[in-house]
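Hi all, a correction to my earlier message: I attached the wrong file for Elongator complex protein 6. Here's the right sequence:
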Amino acid sequence: MTSRIAPLLEPYLTLPEDASLVVLTGILGASTNWLVLRYLSSYLLPPSSPPPPPRPTAPPTEADPAPPAAVLLVSFLRDLPFWRDGASRLGLDLEAAGRQGRFAFVDGLRGLFPGAVAAAPGAAAAWQSALAGASLAHVGRVLHEAADRLREGDGDAARTRAVVLVVDQLDFLLAAAGGAEEEGVGDVSALRVRELLMGLREKVHATVLTLSADEPLIAAQATPLEQEHANLVLGLAHEAELVLSLRLLDTGTAKDVSGVVRITRGGQWSTRKMDEREYLYHAGGDGGVRVFVRGQ
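and the right structure:
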């Protein structure tokens, strides 16, 4: 089992404040997959070090401790086996978390296009669901239902549990729906995708997004799709509390460095104290990631 969370990133992977938005951006060659897995691990696994026992002299309190967080993972580019295998390397069993009512998965790729091969009937567990089209009305309905099931769960604990929405590659929905011929799909815009996301954010405690930020998609804007993509990414970065950006080294590739992770405040930064940082990272073949400062 590889190391769960790089110590330098721990302050940024804790449960965000209510209604927070965290944006993770990557480029070709510097994927956010390993960051998403660390967020899942941070929210679904118990702390590496158990909390200290209460003081014997502390007066009893009537309030029960808050139940652990739950995660709704919506993935538009990667299937459940990909996330399950990556999480298992960090000691996280997503299927067990799903059975416990703390994890739900929505497959946003397999059935997104007409004619796609669907899963066999009855094959998916109750905590798994899949999109069957690219229209925003359908996408919104499926995601709202998944969020409701996770919030309601079984018993009072689920209703008070903090649910974190994690959406992997939301910009793929914009690209796929914008070019589709399905009825009610082709008029998808960055604004409508952001409106869909805003409705979902009202149901959950916090939201974590991954987006592509390659220079041709953000700076060039030579086509309407590139313009909409840039509007989506820049608009969400402005709404975010925290932005973690991955990129390659400016000087090229290196054997012991995979890229750079830059941590900055978003446009909606709260009063919570946080230092903006820039670290190097190296992703190993076993799923382990080392994060370090320059010169180490």
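Sorry for the mix-up. Residues 55 and 61 are 13 Å apart (CA to CA).
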